[in-house]
C-alpha cells in the first residue's frame, strides 16, 4: 500500500509526506490520531481499541462517526501537526483487504 517516505496527493489537500523510515501498526493508533483512508477521506480515531474494526470520525461527503475497517487506513498522524506514518497492516488485515477487493 504505502511505503515510508512516499508523498500522497489527494485532491485540493496539501500533499501528505510520510515519515522517511518508520511505519506504525494499526494497534498503535490511539484516540485523537488523524487518519488517511485509501479512498482519500481523512478522519480522527475515536477509540483506543485494537483489531480490524475501529471507531472513527470520517470526513467524507459529510462528517460522521462510525466503524471503519483498519485495512482501509493507509497513513496516520500520531498527534495533530506531527509526522504522517505509513501503516503496517497485520496478516489478517491484508487477507481481509484482498478478499474485499475481489471482483466476483
Report on this model:
- The protein contains one helix and eight strands, in the order E-E-E-E-E-E-E-E-H.
- It is mainly beta.
- It has one domain (7-100): SH3 type barrels, CATH 2.30.30.
- The longest helix is centred in the last third of the chain and has 10 residues, at 91-100.
- The two termini are 22 Å apart.
Q: Pick out the low-confidence regions.
A: none
The tally of strands reads 8
Helix-strand category: mainly beta
Residue fraction in strands = 35-45%
CATH level 3 topology: SH3 type barrels
Give the helix level as a range of percent: under 10%
| Cross-sheet strand order for the largest sheet | 1-2-8-7-3-4-5-6
Number of domains: 1
- Helices, by number, come to 1
Principal-axis shape equals globular
Rg, rounded, reads 13 Å
CATH architecture: Roll
Between the first and last Cα atoms, what is the distance in angstroms?
Answer: 22 Å
The CATH class:
Mainly Beta
Report the mean per-residue pLDDT as an integer. Answer: 90
Characterize the biggest β-sheet: 8 strands, mixed
Quick structural gist:
Helix content is 10%, strand content 42%. The protein has 104 residues and is mainly β.
List keywords for this structure.
104 residues; mainly beta; SH3 type barrels; 8-stranded mixed sheet; 1 helix; 42% strand; globular
Amino acid at each position: 500500500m504505502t511505503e515510508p517516505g512516499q508523498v500522497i496527493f489527494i485532491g485540493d489537500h496539501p500533499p501528505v509526506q510520510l515519515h522517511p523510515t518508520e511505519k506504525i501498526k494499526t494497534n498503535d493508533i490511539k484516540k485523537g490520531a488523524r487518519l488517511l483512508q485509501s479512498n482519500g477521506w481523512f478522519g480522527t480515531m475515536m477509540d483506543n481499541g485494537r483489531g480490524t474494526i475501529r471507531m472513527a470520525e470520517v470526513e467524507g461527503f459529510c462528517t460522521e462517526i462510525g466503524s471503519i475497517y483498519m485495512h482501509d487506513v493507509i497513513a496516520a498522524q500520531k498527534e495533530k501537526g506531527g509526522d504522517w506514518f505509513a501503516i503496517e497492516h497485520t496478516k489478517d488485515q491484508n487477507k481481509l483487504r484482498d478478499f474485499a477487493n475481489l471482483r466476483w
